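Thread: quick sanity check before group meeting

JM: Hey all, I'm pulling together slides for Thursday and realized we never actually wrote out the predicted structure for the chain we discussed last week. Dropping the sequence here so it's in one place. If anyone has concerns about the input, flag it before I start.
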Amino acid sequence: MTDSTPPPDLKRRFGCLQVLVIVLVAMIGSALATAWWVRHNLYAKKLDPVAFSEGEKKSLDEKLERLENPDPERYDEKTLSRTIELSEREVNYLIAKDDPARKDTVAVDLANDLITVRLIVPTEEETPFIGGKTVRLKIGFTARFKDGKPEVSLRGASVGGIGIPNAWLGNLKEKNLIEEFGEDGGFWQNFSEGVESIEVRDGKIRVDLKE
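JM (edit): ok, ran it. Output follows.
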């Protein structure tokens, strides 16, 4: 009977060849992944602006008209609307309308209790590693009504999908920004005192105001 077992030297050479191939594939894969990340995040393309239809523009204009020019008839508390409700598309359209330069560099996504802001940001030349590049920045905020008070807190931030350490964010992650910055009056305190409730759900945000 013929022994078909390869000699020890052949098995050793084959094993070394396998290892070499695996290492080369891993190196190539890593280089391709790095090149993709750099291209996608350090030379980031601008965002796709919201394409608003004429019907959507008319509906939003009517909402804004009611806020800016209320019914001129006799004042009546009972007939006043105290609710502001906007869709995700309307929020993004308003951002672009307020400043056309932001239409393809800022985008807002709305989910349950979560507001995500996506930004395309140019960096200063002296910034380490990414100086002079255009990067993708993503910031998440929790927005809800809790224990009878509005809460807006920083959930986190990332650059190119890499999380930014809490220390670099001033240790503000998961802290209620209204409480942090509203003690001495100003915008956050006034905002808190004037809000009855906040609700952020998939694709919509609703704010009910106090009397």
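AS: nice. The chain has two domains: 10-42, 54-69+80-209. Residues 143 and 206 are 11 Å apart (CA to CA).
JM: adding both to the slides.
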